[in-house]
Amino acid sequence: MPWWGVASALLANVLYSTGFVLEKRALAALPALNTRQPARVVGHLLSSPLWLGGSLALAAGFAAQLAVYRTLPLAAAQGIFVSGLVLLLLLSSVVLGERTSGRERQSIVAILVALVLVVASLRGEDAQAVARTAPPATLLVIAVPSLAAGLLLYRSAERRARRRHRLPTAGVPYGVAVGLLYGVSSLAIKGVSGLLTTHDVPAAAGQLFRSPYPYLLFFTGAAGLVLSQTALQRCRASVIVPVCTTVTCVFTVVCGTVAFGEPLPADPLRLALRLGGTAVAVTVLLALPRHDTPPAPEPPSRRINGSPSPEHRAPHQPPPNSQELSHEAR
Questions:
Q1: Of the candidates 121, 117, 246, which has an alpha carbon nearest to the alpha carbon of residue 171?
Q2: What global pTM score does this model have?
Q3: pLDDT tens digits for 24-62?
Q4: Measuring CA to CA, which residue among 72, 56, 53 is closest to residue 10?
Q5: Residue 307 per-residue DSSP state
Q6: How far apart are CA 239 and CA 115, in angstroms?
Q7: Residues paired with 291 in a beta bridge
Q8: Which of 37, 44, 111, 171 shows its CA 20 to 30 Å from the CA of 123?
């Protein structure tokens, strides 16, 4: 396993985590985004220098990911990418002030364990044969239904979120939906990396644009930009990004194995590790809380005659006048 490929994967982790946190910080200062107005969403994003800085970090992470896919098999690459969740949680806590619940921390640890199981199913010889391209028909059979499922899931989450008196969503459905889009994008990145070459550039460019990779990459990039930024503005980065990353990693390993012809292990133990890790990750996703916990009500001891105490009264709420107090006393 080439060390510079591992170093590129770790660098991509740092860039992706930094980019997501900068974008989340920028989104807090922007007007509410609406996926039904994509042009306005893009306009708001481009008006924020901080968001542009985050997007540049993500673009650099994309370049590092291209290098990774040229040297490491999909399963190994995804196993290294998921280690970036630890850095993301640290940055979201320090920079954004987000706090994860005990259940969420346990779920994230379980997800990491699940993906470690997938990586443990690898052997040294797996890294020696890195697939370059996938049959277009096979790729499209995987990509088109996955994109449709992601868009439908996101739309369903939007409808549920607009219902009155509904608890605020923790972001799991959004993360799964965007993760499916980015899973297809990851397969497209893998295909693009296999066609990049410095020899006979015109021929390589012609081959690239005759393949489905750049068009899948353009669609998932445009749709993912609007959907992910809207979801990231509404929900905590410490939930959205780990769920999205996990879905992307599991999707890429499972579907990439089929599309790019990277075979499953013949050894029963290694096969059990790979399939078991995938099953655990999916189970954890289904068990994550779908809603944020609403703020606890103010204790009765902090109220005066059923009204909030002066130090807890909202700034815009004027104190009761003397006539109101005497009326309450009667």
A1: 246
A2: 0.74
A3: 999 999 999 988 899 999 999 999 999 999 999 999 999
A4: 72
A5: E
A6: 17
A7: 169
A8: 111
